[in-house]
């Protein structure tokens, strides 16, 4: 055995060193295996063993040769998986050994995780297509290794997280770690859904393997759900379908712990008959409302997957329903008297986003007549909400919120994107349009090029975002990439101009987030602020504060408008912006200040309030970087208030110093300063209120003089207005005789309602709870009832039922997931008893599966990191209640049946979305096909060799014995070996070489032969299992 390993080790090392072509590798490996056969596990281990202690990149030749050995049937799937596991960081170390790799101990070396990811995807494809297993032994051995790897991965990654928690380093898993988890999850999906494997697992002889696999799977699914909810849901559904549960919970006698009554109830649960599946008009209406209620969650991937899961392969119906629901959402907002900004955002979605969704390749793959879809949708639109132009003029004269131009704008946008001819707009509209489509259809690439040549173009394009003409998507893409380009090239003056323009146009920000994520726009800016340093030859320092402040205001305006966290921004916890969000409103006591912070604070206090100075000198800016300044702003304000109250500083000197805060280079400091003041003013442990009110009046009511400063001041007031209003109204209740509070409330009145969040207003909460016998629960039930009756043929209701997703969020926040779900279940139960159960069930599913900013059951942004979970969502709570449905069956059988039906439908819906979603991500994951390995940006890739390998794998190669011999001699340098490799038998007509005998290979220069023997071990049976009777 030792000599065989040495021969094969030399052969494989020479092949890798000389980048041997795949066809030559096939012939040489076949010859060598004929003379010196080696077991599959050891052969796979020799190929996959790490060849250096610091291997951080993947050698694509290893994947090529692995593919060829699989095709030649020299190794099977279980051999490959076992060898990959042996050299994985997940492989548990033996007792008494150190788990960390050692440069001096090759047996502890580990492969890069990219290799594991590719192997998982390759084997997933093989098992999901039925290519494997070839034998029963291969199937069972694969299950054994997969079980061990799942358990080991959970243990390894969990221990890493525990160590981080113990050391205080709470880090999100790295993307590559998440990729490997997902890849193993997909492999397990392929195993569970393989018919041959399921048939084997059902045999009595395989009960131990089934038990171990089920136990590992039960541990792996919750672990995977932390980062890859869609794959975990798919595994969970398959686990339930094939009863792959851990059944180790038994009583002392070894009998099942359930009593006979629960067994009967379990049978009743399984026997619940499903109601017919219908797609109500309300379902998609609820989904779109959830996407647009606050920060837009309008990721193309999320929407298209949802539509495919709901309407299957029916693009005609998808397009018509999407258009209809978008008009319904807009009509509902008008009837509910939503704000002007909300109406604009909904119009933008209909005009800018929906036509682009209809042009998605996944929707246009199948035949679809866009004109017919649009005509069908417009026939269902409420004519009272979207009147003709003549009626619209009458409404505008009567100060009504007319939407008469929306149908025209939508049709023009469809014509712009080629969905309909421009000459059909008038016919579909039913009257002569007031204007036609834009003359030019923008393309992101062209716009970006124009911006790079002429910076003034970007200002024009940002202004055009408010036109609602269908070009919004291209503009957003170009502006987003241009901002990243400016950050990379450090064009701070241009960044300042763009950020100032965007921060004063919140509606433009709404449009941008309909086409991209917050992280795509803001992460480059946050990183830019992190890396901002004073240059060695810095001339003036005040302009640095000016440019820095403009960028910071845009970031903070977005954070406060959309209730973003540092996770949403895509930055780490130790970044400047994350630290500013966490403690940028906290004043520090002198004992908590560092020496540097103390010096900076003293410098700023002297610079602002020293009466003998001529002005704020540049050395104050030079001695304190902007990042350091903004973190001590609340402390600066705190010291100012305290000094003025103690009469250390006069009020006039304080007001004079605060004048500087009305200049653009220091204006952003008002965000942290006013936030601290609003919090401090509500405390009743001080006598600073009179001073605080004077400073409030100075900073809020005294407008800056320059136009840029006035615009920035208005944006800042919008950011802090919500906190200030709560502060002032509370103070007014405490001090009703004070006359200096009402002017402040009046000053911020025009800046209120800046936030786009899911939190309900006090007016809405009163509306839902103030009526007699009205509660949040009854309001939610009434909403479910109204939505369920909407599609009824007997209903004469043309306008959509009044609905806001803020109601559902309010119920979750105040009542909790359990009581909110109970309200939904109770109403579905009542509707089922009234004969309307199918429609109510669809509404309930859409409410439970609706995406949200927090704890969403669906992935809302595939490009952003998965946000941390803070509580159970409705889907998880439903699963919990389903698990306890047997105990409910005896007391309330109809409620139990409703829970069972709802859970089945929710799980099916989420699974369909996950399956639809898994189609697209595989395009960007490292694919298992050889032809795609070459696309990875890795060192040492021989593109020609990989193309040769792909050709050989697919079509075979017409081999020539002379060229093969020359190539082997040239590449492997084996000509000195006695007789080398013999091709004298010639090549068969089919292209398969008939190999001669293979003489001994020289083992000189092996070096690590003993090490390899130690790594592989000398146990022939690496599995330790008896498969007798299973073949």
TrEMBL record:
The keyword Coiled coil does not apply. One of its GO terms (cellular component) is mediator complex. Keywords: Activator, Nucleus, Transcription, Transcription regulation. One of its GO terms (biological process) is regulation of transcription by RNA polymerase II. Its main location: nucleus. Coiled coil: none annotated. It is found in: Nucleus. InterPro entries: Mediator_Med5_fun. One of its GO terms (molecular function) is transcription coregulator activity. Component of the Mediator complex. Belongs to the Mediator complex subunit 5 family. Component of the Mediator complex, a coactivator involved in the regulated transcription of nearly all RNA polymerase II-dependent genes. Mediator functions as a bridge to convey information from gene-specific regulatory proteins to the basal RNA polymerase II transcription machinery. Mediator is recruited to promoters by direct interactions with regulatory proteins and serves as a scaffold for the assembly of a functional preinitiation complex with RNA polymerase II and the general transcription factors. This is Mediator of RNA polymerase II transcription subunit 5. It comes from Clohesyomyces aquaticus. The lineage of its organism: Eukaryota, Fungi, Dikarya, Ascomycota, Pezizomycotina. The gene is MED5.
């Amino acid at each position: 055995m030792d000599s065989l390993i040495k021969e094969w080790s030399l052969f494989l090392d020479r092949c890798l060193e000389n980048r041997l072509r795949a066809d030559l590798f096939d012939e040489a490996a076949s010859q060598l295996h004929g003379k010196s056969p080696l077991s599959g596990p050891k052969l796979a281990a020799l190929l996959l063993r790490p060849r250096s202690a610091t291997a951080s990149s993947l050698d694509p030749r290893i994947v090529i040769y692995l593919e060829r050995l699989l095709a030649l049937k020299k190794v099977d799937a279980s051999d490959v998986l076992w060898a990959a596991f042996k050299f994985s960081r997940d492989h548990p170390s033996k007792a008494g050994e150190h788990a960390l790799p050692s440069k001096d101990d090759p047996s502890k070396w580990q492969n890069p995780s990219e290799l594991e990811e590719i192997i998982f995807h390759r084997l997933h494809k093989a098992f999901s297509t039925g290519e494997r297993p070839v034998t029963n032994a291969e199937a069972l051995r694969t299950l054994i290794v997969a079980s061990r790897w799942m358990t080991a991965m959970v243990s390894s990654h969990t221990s890493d997280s525990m160590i981080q928690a113990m050391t205080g380093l709470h880090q999100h898993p790295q993307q590559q770690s998440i990729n490997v988890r997902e890849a193993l999850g997909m492999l397990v999906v392929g195993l569970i859904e393989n018919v041959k494997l399921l048939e084997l697992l059902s045999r009595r002889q395989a009960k131990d393997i089934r038990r171990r696999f089920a136990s590992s799977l039960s541990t792996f699914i919750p672990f995977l759900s932390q980062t890859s909810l869609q794959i975990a849901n798919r595994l969970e559904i398959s686990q339930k379908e094939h009863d792959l549960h851990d059944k180790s919970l038994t009583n002392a006698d070894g009998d099942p712990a359930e009593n006979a009554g629960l067994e009967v109830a379990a049978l009743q649960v399984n026997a619940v008959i499903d109601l017919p599946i219908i797609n109500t008009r309300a379902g998609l209406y609820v989904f779109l409302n959830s996407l647009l209620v606050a920060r837009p969650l309008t990721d193309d991937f999320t929407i298209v997957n949802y539509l495919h899961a709901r309407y299957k392969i029916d693009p005609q119906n998808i397009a018509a329903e999407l258009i209809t629901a978008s008009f319904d959402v807009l009509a509902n907002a008008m009837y509910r008297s939503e704000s002007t900004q909300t109406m604009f955002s909904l119009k933008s979605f209909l005009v800018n986003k929906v036509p682009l969704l209809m042009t998605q390749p996944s929707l246009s793959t199948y035949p679809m007549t866009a004109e017919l879809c649009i005509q069908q949708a417009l026939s269902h639109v409420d004519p009272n909400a979207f009147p003709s132009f003549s009626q619209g003029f009458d409404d505008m004269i009567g100060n009504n919120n007319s939407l008469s131009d929306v149908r025209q704008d939508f049709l023009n946008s469809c014509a712009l994107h080629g969905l309909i001819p421009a000459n059909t707009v008038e016919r579909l509209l039913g009257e002569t349009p007031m204007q036609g489509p834009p003359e030019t259809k923008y393309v992101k690439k062209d716009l970006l090029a124009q911006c790079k040549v002429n910076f003034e173009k970007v200002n024009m394009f940002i202004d055009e975002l408010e036109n609602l003409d269908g070009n919004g998507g291209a503009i957003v893409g170009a502006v987003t990439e241009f901002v990243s380009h400016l950050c990379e090239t450090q064009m701070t003056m241009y960044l300042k101009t763009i950020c100032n323009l965007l921060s004063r146009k919140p509606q433009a920000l709404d449009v941008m987030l309909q086409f991209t994520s917050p992280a795509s726009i803001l992460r480059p800016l946050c990183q830019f602020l992190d890396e901002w340093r004073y240059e060695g030859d810095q001339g003036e320092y005040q302009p640095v504060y000016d440019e820095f402040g403009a960028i910071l205001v845009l970031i903070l305006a977005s954070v406060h408008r959309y209730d973003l966290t540092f996770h949403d921004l895509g930055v780490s916890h130790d970044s400047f912006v994350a630290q500013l969000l966490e403690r940028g409103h906290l004043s520090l006591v002198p004992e908590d200040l560092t020496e540097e912070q103390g010096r900076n604070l003293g410098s700023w206090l002297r610079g602002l309030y020293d009466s003998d100075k001529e002005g704020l000198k540049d050395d104050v800016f030079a001695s304190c970087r902007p990042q350091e300044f903004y973190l001590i702003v609340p402390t600066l304000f705190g010291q100012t208030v305290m000094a003025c109250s103690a009469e250390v500083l006069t009020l006039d000197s304080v007001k004079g110093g605060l004048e500087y805060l009305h200049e653009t280079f220091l204006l952003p400091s008002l965000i942290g300063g006013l936030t601290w003041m609003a919090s401090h003013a509500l405390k009743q442990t001080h006598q600073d209120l009179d001073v605080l009110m004077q400073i409030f009046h100075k900073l809020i009511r005294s407008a800056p003089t320059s136009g840029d400063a006035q615009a920035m001041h208005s944006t800042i007031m919008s950011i802090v207005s919500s906190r200030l209003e709560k502060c002032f109204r509370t103070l007014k209740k405490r001090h009703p005789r004070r006359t200096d509070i009402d002017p402040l409330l009046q000053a911020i009145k025009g800046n209120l309602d800046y936030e786009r969040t899911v939190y309900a207003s006090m007016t809405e909460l009163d509306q839902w709870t103030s009526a007699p016998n009205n509660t949040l629960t009854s309001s939610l039930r009434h909403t479910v009832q109204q939505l369920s009756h909407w599609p009824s043929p007997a209903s004469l209701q043309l306008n959509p039922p009044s609905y806001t997703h803020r109601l559902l969020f309010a119920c979750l926040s105040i009542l909790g997931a359990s009581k909110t779900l109970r309200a939904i279940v109770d109403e579905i139960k009542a509707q089922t008893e009234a004969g309307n159960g199918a429609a109510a069930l669809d509404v309930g599913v859409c409410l439970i599966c609706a995406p949200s900013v927090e704890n969403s059951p669906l992935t809302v942004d595939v490009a952003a990191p998965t946000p941390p979970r803070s509580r159970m969502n409705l889907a998880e709570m439903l699963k919990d209640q389903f698990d306890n449905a047997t105990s409910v069956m005896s007391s309330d059988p109809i409620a139990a049946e409703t829970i069972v039906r709802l859970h089945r439908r929710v799980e099916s819906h989420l699974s369909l979305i996950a399956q639809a979603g898994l189609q697209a991500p595989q395009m960007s994951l490292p694919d298992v096909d050889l032809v795609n390995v070459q696309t990875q940006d890795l060192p040492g890739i021989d593109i020609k060799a990989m193309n040769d390998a792909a050709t050989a794998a697919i079509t075979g190669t017409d081999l020539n014995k002379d060229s093969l011999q020359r190539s082997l001699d040239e590449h492997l340098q084996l000509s000195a070996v006695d007789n080398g490799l013999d091709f004298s038998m010639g090549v068969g007509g089919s292209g398969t070489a008939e190999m001669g005998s293979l003489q001994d290979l020289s083992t000189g220069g092996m070096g690590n032969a003993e090490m390899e023997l130690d790594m592989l071990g000398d146990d022939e049976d690496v599995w330790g299992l008896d498969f007798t009777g299973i073949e």
